[in-house]
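seq:
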Amino acid sequence: MKIPHHEARLHTRYGEPVMLEGVRVSGDLRGLLFEASIEQRFSNPGDRNVEIVYTFPLPWAAVLLGVDVRLGDRDLTGAVVEKRDAEARYEEALSEGDAAIMLERNADHSYTLNLGNLMAKETCVVTVRYARTLQFEQRGLRLLIPTVIAPRYGDPVRD
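struct:
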């Protein structure tokens, strides 16, 4: 599924939507440098383990500082590795029933985070951290924070 860079999508590997339970945004502005942390909380309401696929954009000219994932009571972190190696490690972890994450930058500059083996009734918290330099516009600073997970209010492509 190709996702335009201006939309975020949260669903299972098979396209089933995942309900977002809450979002918390915090930021720090020092001069023109803005550092943001966006925490998004969701859970698996079903009776089976699922793999979550989360595709998200960053604001224009932002730099990704990190992604933190908490699955239940486990904190997951990653390391930068070659794509084939990352995919193999990820699939191996899933096949062994372990929790795993894999982050990839897409051609349209959005990111896709795969979260494997979210247990039934388990909660997940994804925290995306980024920084960007703000520009003066009409004698002020303008700050936009993307927080919408589409298609909550319909299909943006069809509509």
